[in-house]
Amino acid sequence: MLHAGGGPRWATYAGAVTIQLGLPRRRGGAGPVQLPEDRPAVTGLVDPRGRLATDLRVSLTDRCNLRCTYCMPPEGLDWLPSSRLLSDEEIVRLVTIAVERLGVTEVRFTGGEPLLRRGLEGIVAATAALRTAAGSAPEQSLTTNALGLARRAQGLADAGLARVNVSLDTLRPERFAAITHRDRLADVLAGLRAATDAGLGPVKINAVLLRGVNDDEAPDLLRWALREGYQLRFIEQMPLEPHGSWDRSSMIDAQEILASLLPHVDLVDAAPGSRGASPAEVWNASWDDAGTVRTGVVGIVASVTRPFCAACDRTRLTADGQVRDCLFATREHDLRALLRDGATDDQLADAWRSAMWGKLPGHGIDDPSFTRPQRPMSAIGG
């Protein structure tokens, strides 16, 4: 329900979640947005290689309540000031444009840690009320470290969230504390159970293996996931940490991960030759657990050694309103400035189309000229 008039506007969505939409803004002050002359006249987010972006990743904050060693230093980072962050209203408006005008059908909320966003349930509810060109609500998911998820899982499900991806690199409390600089493993496991109880499935687990730290734990993680009914995804460590310590020669790659699993679990390629735009190569896994056969799915996201750039269907929006056409992009396009200067929805849509037309063929990590993004992963959004 929307209330409009001379004062602030409010929107109330399913589950009695209310977002203040603020005062009406000046429209059209940003001026026209010129699309590239060689761009085809299509409504979607197409790039010069014909890839169409239908999967939107929205970072809700650059802040995080863990300090994973491969992501940020123990003292944290210089967080974005609140004035630069998109408001709840601005996020909902841009997501609405993406879904209703640009062909987006999937929305993943990320961070930093998105559960730190107080208005998360309202943003999810507003997104659930949208309709794609096919007449359905966009599929919504959340990537989280699960701290606080035990309290919020049911509310998020009620608001319209479909599933969660939870980052978890170890099942050993002392290792968890060493990797994250926080003794919170029990809270993560509680969040996972709450997500399952709320129907936020399939629950996916994202695990990064670090040489000499947790690289011996891959079989244990997979057997645990099969027992609990989670879908495990191993992710190659990527050059997105702020301290520049990433070294490909010491990275544990997809081939090494597979080799560590095969002696312990039976694996069968789930979809040989048909990976498509999925970031993960997936195997059907089975394991005899003392007479009980556990079955499930395991995947490996090998963005470094087995990239899926040729079929990439993603577009990204940072917490401060910048469009990124690739996780490893070195340039951004500012929608926040246009939005706050009074741009119309048509102008914002055209600016987004123009931004995606500059997408490169691939991330180029193997190219000697590869340049790391200036932003770390926590500021980009996973």
Give structural notes.
With 382 residues, the protein is an alpha/beta fold. The protein has one domain: Aldolase class I (TIM Barrel), CATH 3.20.20. The protein has 10 helices and 17 strands. The protein has helices spanning 88-102, 120-128, 149-159, 173-180, 185-197, 218-228, 254-261, 335-340, 345-356, 377-380; strands at 2-3, 9-13, 17-22, 45-46, 52-53, 55-59, 106-110, 139-144, 163-167, 204-207, 231-235, 266-269, 281-289, 292-301, 314-317, 322-324, 333-334. Strands 12-13-14-11-10-9-8-7-6-15-16-17 form a 12-stranded mixed sheet. α1 (88-102) packs across α9. It is globular, with a radius of gyration of 21 Å. The chain starts with a strand and ends with a helix.
Q: How many separate helices?
A: 10
The order of strands across the largest sheet is 12-13-14-11-10-9-8-7-6-15-16-17
Q: How large, in whole angstroms, is the Cα Rg?
A: 21 Å
Residue ranges: pLDDT <50 for 5 or more in a row? 1-25
User: Could you estimate the helical fraction of the residues in percent?
Assistant: 25-40%
Q: Report the average pLDDT across residues.
A: 87
Q: How many structural domains?
A: 1
Work out the strand percent: 15-25%
The coarse silhouette is globular
Query: Helix/strand-derived class?
Result: alpha/beta
